[in-house]
Structures are given as structure tokens and as C-alpha cells.
Amino acid sequence: MDIATGVGRERPLRNPWALRVIACAAVALTASIAAAAAPSAFQQSTYFGGGGDEHARKCVFDPSTCDIVCVGAATSGHVLGTAGGAQPDPAGLGDGWVARLSGDLTTIRQATYIGGSQTDRAEGVVIDPASGDIVVAGITSSATLPGLSNAAQPQRGGGDDAFVARFSGDLRTLRGTTYLGGTANEGGNVVGLAIEPGSGVVLVAGSTQSNDFPGTQGGAFGSPSGSFVARLSGDLSTLEQASYVNAVPTQINDVLVHPTSGDIVLGGRSVYPGGRQTGLLTAFAADLRSALGSVDIGAVGYCAVWALAVDPASGDVIGAGEIDNALGEAAAGSAQPNYSGGSDAFAIRVSADLATVRRATYLGGNGFERGYGVSLGSSGEIFVTGITQSAAFPGLAGGAQSELHGVQDGFVVRLNPDLTELRQSTLVGGARYDTAYWLATCPESGDLVLSGYTDSADFPATAGGAQPTIERGAFSNSAGFAMRLGAALTGGVATPTPTPTTPTLSTATPTGTPTVPVTPGGSCVGDCNGDGAVTVNELITGVNIALDQASLSACPSFDSSGDGAVAVNELISAVSNALNGCS
What we know:
It contains 3 helices and 28 strands. By secondary structure, it is mostly beta strands. The strands form 7 sheets. It has a 4-stranded antiparallel β-sheet, with no helix packed on it. Strands 2-3-4-5 form a 4-stranded antiparallel β-sheet, with no helix packed on it. It has a 4-stranded antiparallel β-sheet with strand order 6-7-8-9, with no helix packed on it. Strand 15 and strand 16 (277-284) form a beta hairpin. Helix 1 packs antiparallel against helix 2, helix 1 (16-32) packs parallel to helix 3 (568-580) and helix 2 (536-546) packs antiparallel against helix 3 (568-580). The radius of gyration is 23 Å and the shape is globular. The two termini are 28 Å apart. The relative contact order is 0.14.
């Protein structure tokens, strides 16, 4: 439940009226203590590198440890924490990098470069749920990538190739790498990456100009179309099948494995004669040998899907992207039914079989917008991130950052599941130029992690981060960033919520899921961190536990009875402790 808005699912055995009283008491506590601030969206940020051309392309939460894992590219060789990593030193003109950080973004546990003698960048990252290994995909022009001894494609095909690398969970061991490409370029905008549950098969998708992309014989489409999708064994030793994508020229930006059907869903754009470019959602059978449903988005002009997600409850596919023309009837009744001008971001909900467009909404002001990332909260809310140059971006009232600070800022919006209501927006950025690329949701807390790049020295909430200041270089000032946000997207900068202690990661054996002991009771109900006081943030945690929006392990002290649940009387006790102090 979001205390600021009252959004959430009511449980039949809880008293909603009492919970609202507790929410009001939390607000009263905030007002009564001068030093207290509203719960903050901007919990903590960190820079990555600087002094060169750096970015953080994607970050994901590791569900087994609460850590955050990020990937990106750097030309400066100034990424922190690489000592002891699988590749501790940069090797070429620019290298990809991978970093594991504590969940509060204050510590880099371990980082590593990945690259050869030329230019490399890491674009995608997933964590193998079975082993805890970190799998990375990217683009390389290097013929000397490490870890190729058992590769499906041990030599670069030509030009820029895609690549995939598998690391141990602690980033100290490179388990294997493979090239993926033909004799021309695979150096498109991004590389999509996913893991098939159960089998551990790695799915990779992106752009190709090669007429001889490997493994496409027997695929759904055998003729070059500008994009590929490929299926690799989990150890990267075998290219099981590949296919070009569709019969018309395409650019693919993201890929996912549908959790119910096992189908492979791709998002990108199609290019038709005459210059018409439509957003594309298309699906393949898991073996990539047959094409399934497909959806074109947009009537004329330009449209592209940049990111995908799946609603686990309904199986619907959610896309986010950019459009400069009409969404058509799908936008009727949506949160923002009308095009605002320039180029708008958008979000779209489509049935699992891609047969029905349920609804789409524009997201933008009178300037330029692009939607780069999408993620779902535990209650089914839809979060979209991207970039904006509009001073009048919708839904900013009450947001953590309600004004455009530079020429371009990132944005994050929170929408209800059917896209009819924009519940909150916030901008994210400093005084210069900021780009938000990707968004992921923490499965335990519901918090978000945002990643991108910035050349702003005043990017919000970096104080106390793993790298709190940006480096400045002679030729470039950009750095990657990661930010942890509260899902409400409201309030000012505050101290990040403490995260559970991460178990030690083993080099030889990938991490499993740790068991978090739950100790009932405690000297002060609601005192999560043991500092002898109960704060507003801790009250919110207790309400979320009571509504099953957070795990009891987030704050065991709320369970004073030891029955494994948080009841209304326990929440009331916590409010009393917050107002009157712990005895």
C-alpha cells in the first residue's frame, strides 16, 4: 500500500479503517517532528566513472541477496571496484563493465571490465535464477575477448559483433564468452537479453546487417531483415537456433521469455516502404522455428518499442517506447489520450498472444520524450522511465523532482494496471544533461532501481553513494548512474532504507537464496534497525507487511506476537512508539 495515495489491495482479515488511521498518524508524526522529512523517492544514487564517455545501461536486483547489479561502458578506465574482478584492468579503447553493489548503492562489492583490444560495451544483464551467475550481453569490435575456449562462436564474424559473457555471482570468475554475429555489423543500439526458466537457455536479440548471421537455417525467417534473435545453451557453448525477425526490415530492442507460454516476445520497430516506421511487438515459438502473433503500433511517422515486461497475473505484455503520431483507438480512455507534440513516450498493454491491444497511453509534454524502460510493481502498477525535454511533463505535482533542472532530464511515471490513471510522475536529473535508460523493481520491497548516464555534477542523492562525485575529463564529462527510488515517487531526498546484509558470495559455487531468520517480538515494536526509535519509513514498512506488499523479513520487530504476521494492534503499538518514543 502507498500511504500517500491509499493505493493497494485490501485484505479481508485486515481492518482498512484502522490502517488509514495508522497512515494518518504517520503523517501527523512527520508534521510534529521538525527534522523529519516526507518519505523520499530518491533514496540513494551513485555515479559510475566519468572523465570519459561512460554510461550505465541496465541495472537489476539480485533477488537472492538484495544486491543491485549494473552494466555499462567506459572509455576512461576509471570504474571503481574492479580490483579482484575477473578482468580487473581495461584492455582497449573502451570496455564494458559489470558491477555488483549493495542494495542501498553505498558500496561496490565487486566490479569487472569485459573487453578486448578495441571498443566494447555491455548492454544487457540478467541473473540466472538457478545458479546466481551473472550473464551479460553487449557489442564488441575486439577480436581478443577473453573466455572463448568453449564458445559457440569463438571468433569475431566481422565488423561489430554481439557478445555474451557469463560470470560467477561475485564477478571474480569469467565462466565463458561467445561472439554472436556474421561478416557485417551487429552494432545496433542495444542488445536484448533473457534467460529461459528451467533450462537456463540464454536468449539474445538485436540488430544485424549480416546476410550470413550464424544459426538461422531452420529459423522462422531465413532472409535478412535487420534484426536477429538467437538461442544459446546456458554455458554459451552451443548456438541452438537463430532467426532473422519478420519479413520487413526491423530493429529489435528487447526480448523476454513469456513465463506462462514460454514464447519468445520481442519489441522494436518495423520499417515499411515510404519511410513509415511502426512500433513492433512480435512473438516466436520457444525453439525460434515458427513465428506467432505480431502487433504494429502507430499509423504514420515514427514509433518504436524500447522495453518489455509481463504482468504475471494476467500474462499481458507491457511495452514502452516513443511515438510521433497516433496511437489510435487504443488511447481512448487512457491516462493521456492525446498526443502532446514533438515526440511522446508511450506505454501499451497487449494480450499474451498479441491478438488484442487492450490500451495504450501517451506520456509527454510539449517537447521531446522517449520511453526507454518499463517495470511492474507487486500490485500490478506499471512504471515507465525515459527522457524528457518538456517543462510541463504530466503528473509532476508532489513528485520528488517536479521541475526540469537541465536541458534533458530522466522521468519515471507510475500508472495503474489498465493505463487509465497516471498516479505520479517525477523528473530525475541535475543542471545539465541526463538520460534514464532502464528500470527494475525489487521483488521484496517494491523499490525501483534506475540507470543511465549524466553529465550533471549535482545529480540528486549521490552523497553517500559508492561514487559520490562525478569525474571531469578533458573531452567528455559524462558518467553512468544508478538510483534507488521509492515506488511512490514522492518526497525529497532522504536517507536510504537499510537493506539486509548480503551473504558472502563464493567464487567456485554461485550463490543460492539465503534464508533470512525472522525473530518475533523485540523491545520496541516497529523499530526495524534497532536504533531505539520508530520512523515514518518504518511505519510505512509495517503497513506494507500487513498488506502483503513486503516480506516480514524487512522488519521482524513488527511481529510482537510471533505469529508470523503483522496485525492492526501491532501497527498501532508501533505508531505509539513513534509518537511517544520507545520505552
